[in-house]
Amino acid sequence: MKVIFRNKLYSFSYRLKVKELMKNLNLSSEEFLVVVNGKLVTEDEVIPEDAEVKIIPVVSGG
């Protein structure tokens, strides 16, 4: 899978759950959202090997 995070490309050659990917990249699911092949996913979803993944920061404000 190709993972794009902060304009950097990471590559994984095996399936992972979203929460495993976040742990590997040392990221918090409270601070970032994961989009797999254009679809927002939850922590428990398995990411296929051929997926394109984007990790985007959560934006909040008032």
What does this structure look like?
This protein is mostly beta strands and 62 residues long. The protein has one domain (2-57): Ubiquitin-like (UB roll), CATH 3.10.20. The protein has one helix and seven strands, in the order E-E-E-H-E-E-E-E. The protein has one helix at residues 18-24; strands spanning 2-5, 8-11, 16-17, 32-36, 39-41, 46-47, 52-57. Strands 2-1-7-4-5 form a five-stranded mixed β-sheet, with no helix packed on it. A two-stranded antiparallel ribbon has the order 3-6. The longest helix is centred in the middle third of the chain and has 7 residues, at 18-24. The termini are far apart.
Q: What is the fold's blueprint, element by element?
A:
Layout: E1 2-5, E2 8-11, E3 16-17, H1 18-24, E4 32-36, E5 39-41, E6 46-47, E7 52-57
Parallel strand pairs: 1-7
Antiparallel strand pairs: 1-2, 3-6, 4-5, 4-7
